[in-house]
Amino acid sequence: MSPLSIPSPDHSFAVFPVWIFQIHIYALFILAGIIVAMLIVNRRLSARGGEPGIVIDIVLWAIPLGIIGARFYHVFTHLGDYFYPGADLLNVFAIWDGGNALYGSLIGGAIGAFIGCRITGIRLWSFADALAPALLVAQAIGRLGNYFNQELYGLPTNLPWGLEIDPSVSPAFPTGLPADTLFHPLFLYEIIWNLVGVALLLLIERRFRLRWGRLFALYLVWYGLGRSWLEAIRIDPSSDGFLGIPANIWASFAAIALGLVLFFVQGRRHPGVEISVYREGRGPKGVKTPEEVAEDEAAEAEARWTDEELAGTAVEKAPTSETTSK
Predict the structure, then answer these.
(1) Residue 236's pLDDT band (boundaries 50, 70, 90)?
(2) Tell me, what's the pLDDT at 71?
């Protein structure tokens, strides 16, 4: 073992009792990532004119659907782990044991965000741009949960910062390798990649003021590039694939392609400045939209005209002093 090698936490830390509950540290890191991401998005949307706290109304849809999407994407790409003779099918729903795919969460979360944005009046692409760096932060935090579960590592390595894996804990540990074999710490690589991505996205956003979903497009490209490389050296024997290529690599290629298309299409469709994070005709509670202001001004003008007309009519009909004397 190298003196710089990374020891994996004792498996007893992965699950610990609190009163009558079994707390899974993987779930705690996922929850921490969600909370941090919400705080970041709330601040970014509020800075652009969004109502403070409106992100909660959106994530109430995005988070549940994102979790469902993450779990079922993982199950569908690891069918052999859940469907075999004598398998307990309830394990399909055991998200606390790990196995939640990021690309599935993006699909499910996007559906939830679309619903939440329609309800709140927030532009979906405005929300996506505010979310882009926050997603990378949340993913970096969540990877610490993979570290405690000893479930995200790469090929064997002689590098001094190799990751130690307990063969009795990780079912993916390659058969025939010595117990002291070191592996690429993919969880750490992805944490670094994601945090570098946060810095780059914020720098690019400040320099070019990207809006209309183009910052989110760069997120897809950045994450897809990093994830495709990490998946290429990952040990995940149960992962299904196509043409010998794991499903997550195909998903990474799709993310890169979608990001590039989205970036250039939105750049052509919306070359101007994004005036508001709200859709046309919608705005923060208690704050009138330009359309509502115009309607109120028109109503006031009509009311003034009516009052003046009535006053003029009353003057015409009022008896003069000459008529009264007669």
Answers:
(1) confident
(2) 84
Q: At a CB cut-off of 8 Å and minimum separation 6, what does 100 contact? A: 30, 67, 70, 71, 74
Q: In this predicted model, which residue has the larger pLDDT, 71 or 283? A: 71
Extents of the domains making up the chain = 11-269, 290-318
Q: Is the pLDDT of residue 217 over 50?
A: yes
The pLDDT tens digits of the residues spanning 49-86 come to 889 999 999 999 999 999 888 888 887 777 777 777 87
pTM here is: 0.81
143 is in an annotated binding site: yes
Convert 158-167 to b/e letters by CB count within 10 Å (16 or more is b): eeeebbbbeb
Give yes or no for a contact between 153 and 165, defined as CB atoms under 8 angstroms apart. yes
- Partnered with residue 232 across adjacent β-strands are none
